[in-house]
Amino acid sequence: MKVRADIAELLYAGHSDSAIARQLGVDRTATVAPARAALGLPKAKRGPKASASAEDLFWRRVKPTDDGHMEWTGSHVGRTPALRYDGRNLTACSIAYRIANGRPADGQARPSCGRDHCVMPGHHADRIDRAHARARSKVVQAWARGLRRAGRAREREREKRVDALYAGIFGAAA
Fold it and tell me: What are the Cα distances from residue 66, in Å, to 71, 96, 113, 148?
């Protein structure tokens, strides 16, 4: 029997007959089951399939929102979105941080977008990112203070010139 390449690929990937039939729009008993037998593959195991990585589990448990964020549809530990992978509890925020930055978070990864419990990759900051943001904020505030001081000094100089012109035109004020 000749087996379609797309069916063989999904069979080797461990998908069930029903899942392949649904995905490809073919008959499970007439097409997929005979292909499995021809390839000498055992029936697919029932139940949830093992994940290749924590990131894979993460993508299975998020749902995009209309405003550009993502919400967590998986389990929580207390109020924290979390999942269990490889015998460890991991927070969804730490996985989202690792997806966005390519490195694990230093300390806690927290949403920096202003939305509580957002799990969109790229919307999180770790301890180092928060320290850099505070330092940048201090620089910007100092720059703004300098602009305000310079503006006040320019305003005082302008007032002195106006007073001098007024005194030149109308005489000294009484």
Answer: 11, 19, 15, 40
> If pLDDT is split at 50, 70 and 90, which confidence band does 174 have?
low
Q: What are phi and psi of 7, to 5 degrees?
A: -70, -45
Q: Is 71 helix (H, G, I), strand (E, B) or coil?
A: strand
Instruction: Dump pLDDT digits (tens) for 5-33.
Output: 999 998 888 888 888 898 889 999 999 99
What is the number of alpha carbons within 13 Å of residue 73 lying toward its C-beta?
10
Confidence check: pLDDT of 47 > 80: no
pLDDT at 146 over 90: no
Give dist(CA 51, CA 89) in Å, integer: 15
Sorted by sequence, the CB contacts under 8 Å of residue 21 that are 6+ apart come out as 27, 28, 31, 32
Residue reference for tokens 């305000």: 148
What whole-number distance in Å separates Cα of residue 143 and Cα of residue 159? 24
Q: Where are the beta strands (DSSP E) in 39-168?
A: 62-64, 70-72, 76-77, 80-85, 88-91, 110-111, 124-125
